[in-house]
Amino acid sequence: MVAVVNMNTSSHPMSSDAHQIPKKQYSAFIRLQNELDNLRFG
User: pTM of this prediction?
Assistant: First the structure.
């Protein structure tokens, strides 16, 4: 799965799904995305 994450875009497909994720899992999800961004962009 290729996921492009843009936190500035509220219309991003993931945004609607994110609201259904419990806050604790959501914060972990955000950390995961940040780690992926660090790996991708250095």
Answer: 0.41
